[in-house]
Amino acid sequence: MGDKQRKPPEFPFMELPYVAMQYVLHTMDFSDLLRASTLSKWMGEMVSKVKVPEMDVNIISGSATIKAGDFKWTIRKVDEPDWFGSQIFSKTEFGSYPVTGITSSKWISNTTEDNFDEAVSIVVKIREVFPKIKINKLKMDLNHVDNYAPILDVFDVKQIKKVDMFININVLPFMVEKTKNMKMQGLIHYKEVIWFMAENPVEPHGSLHWFTTLGCIMSGMQVLKLDGELLTNADCIEFLRLWQSGELPCCGIMKAEKAKNINLMTVLKGTNWTPWNDAQMEKYRGIECFSEYFEMKGFIVNWDDEIISIQYLEARQLFFVVFWDRRFVDRTLLPIKDIV
Amino acid sequence: MSVEPEVPIVQVEEVRENPVLYKIISSDNHVFTISEHAVKLSKTLWDLITNLGLTAENALDNPIPVENVNGKNMETIVQFCERHKYDEEEPEYTNYIREFVLPEWDRQLLSIDNEELFQLILATNYLDIQKLMDYCCRVIGDMAKDKTPEELRIIYGIPTDAEDDALERSASDSPGPSG
């Protein structure tokens, strides 16, 4: 002990049997555990053994939110400081973690910049406290993927259950061109994760691997989730025009849920389309694995040497486009061969 | 044509068996009686009873001495076990956070000072009563709610890294049992 004699504790936690110490920690809330983990290395180790609730991470335009158990952290972009907010804490309060620890279960920080580095750093710090924590839902604006996905790669992609990447249809033309070296061969919807089968031409004979959505995003393939409620025939026609004019070089999948009042005949007018044809699609191995998002019907549209399939499942309000013959480079993720 | 024999109608009533009672003697020689259902909540006591071969006939004549638990704690434990003897069996412990609401009756029972609570946990740990252990630990865990790290350090007496290191150094410097 140091020179200064510490007052006896209110409760002699350190004298409890080890099992009882662990039981005490298991009854604590997430945010209390985060704070407890900052007390000492020993306490940090004790806390790291507790299995905590999964985390939701939401980084979209203008705001970022992290939720796990009772812990909630939000940062939002504002033009004016929100002087009247009841729970405004400075960013440094959390930024100084873990030196001073976490002092509240809820933070709302304001930022005038479209910068969510702090949100990602908090996710990483939380993971340092709970190395086995899983991300239940990861929502990220495609604008942020380049910056933040590599940081979030500290997570095993298998730990991330559901990934949604959002983009507004208005910004589609601004998407940055990326390389086209991965050939997609199939997809499967398995335990809330969309898995893609892709051929990796980097290997001499182009072996097949399974990737998650995040894997594909990070390898350069874009997965577009559009707001189906706002989707019109005109938007779909514009989407096809963008594809045909080469402005969607990296798109692998486009999906719009809650899509209503789409008339495929109107959308396909003027394109080189045919009904789904198994023989024509035979060369895309893995199609037998297609998921609940995909039924082997719908329409095939050819343009130059590219081919896409389009489905509108009216009963399920689902509009779904798969881009075949696309090639993407696997830059960062290890292939996942066994999906079970 | 055969006639089905008339089946007598039996009025089903709640039938309570005569409870089997066991006697327990605490470390300070207080004697407690506890029912079979209640004593089964303590894995340690139930193992002892089965190993001793105690039955309904000889249980009361063979009190069980429990050297590690005093009368005060034993009284709380017997009350708790009698209260929860018909509860559903607790699921096995996992290392997941356990979310449950501490019932008001139990919160009242455990509204004791921290030293008593500490002693009760030691007794509960020895007697291996899972539910009571959970409830006691919840009371201790609740002490951490919305506290700052420094408040937590004071409440639980968690040493800093420097204090831990100093303690470790002094332990390694001190002579062993033979020295």
Would you kindly provide a written description of the structure presented here, covering whatever features stand out?
The complex is a heterodimer of chains A (340) and B (179). Chain A has 2 domains: 10-54 and 69-134, no CATH class; 167-324, no CATH class. In chain A, strands 4-3-2-1-5-6 form a 6-stranded mixed sheet. Chain A has a 6-stranded mixed sheet with strand order 10-11-15-14-13-12. Chain A has a 3-stranded antiparallel sheet with strand order 7-8-9. Chain A has helices spanning 18-26, 30-37, 41-48, 91-95, 117-129, 142-152, 213-218, 233-244, 264-268, 278-281; strands at 55-60, 63-68, 71-77, 106-111, 135-141, 160-166, 183-190, 193-200, 207-212, 222-227, 251-257, 272-275, 299-303, 306-313, 318-324. Residues 79-108, 167-182, 188-193, 200-206, 286-292 and 328-340 of chain A have low confidence and may be disordered. Chain A is elongated. Chain A is 24% helix and 29% strand. Chain A has 340 residues and is of the alpha/beta class. Chain B has 179 residues and is mainly alpha-helical. Chain B has a single domain (21-88, 101-171), classed as Potassium Channel Kv1.1, Chain A, CATH 3.30.710.10. Chain B is 45% helix and 7% strand. In chain B, strands 2-1-3 form a 3-stranded mixed sheet. The longest helix of chain B has 14 residues, at 114-127. Chain B is globular. Chain B starts with 20 loop residues before the first strand and ends in a 6-residue tail after the last helix. The relative contact order of chain B is 0.11. Mean pLDDT of chain B is 84; it is low at 1-16. Classes of the chains: A alpha/beta (340), B mainly alpha (179).
Task: Give the number of DSSP strands of chain A.
Answer: 15
Beta content of chain A: 25-35%
Provide the domain count of chain B.
1
In the predicted model, the low-confidence regions of chain B spanning at least 5 consecutive residues are 1-16
CATH superfamily of chain B: Potassium Channel Kv1.1, Chain A
User: What is the arithmetic mean of pLDDT of chain A?
Assistant: 66
**In whole angstroms, how far apart are the ends of chain B?**
99 Å
CATH top level assignment of chain B: Alpha Beta
Number of domains of chain A: 2
CATH topology of chain B: Potassium Channel Kv1.1, Chain A
Regarding quaternary structure, what we see is heterodimer
Number of helices of chain A: 10
Number of helices of chain B: 8
Which consecutive residue ranges of chain A, at least 5 long each, have pLDDT under 50?
Answer: 79-108, 167-182, 188-193, 200-206, 286-292, 328-340
User: Pairing-aware structural class of the strands and helices of chain A?
Assistant: alpha/beta
Global outline of chain A: elongated
Overall pLDDT score of chain B: 84
Helical percent range of chain B? Answer: 40-55%
Protein name (chain A): F-box domain-containing protein
Organism (chain A): Caenorhabditis latens
Domain F-box (chain A): 14-41
InterPro entries (chain A): F-box_dom
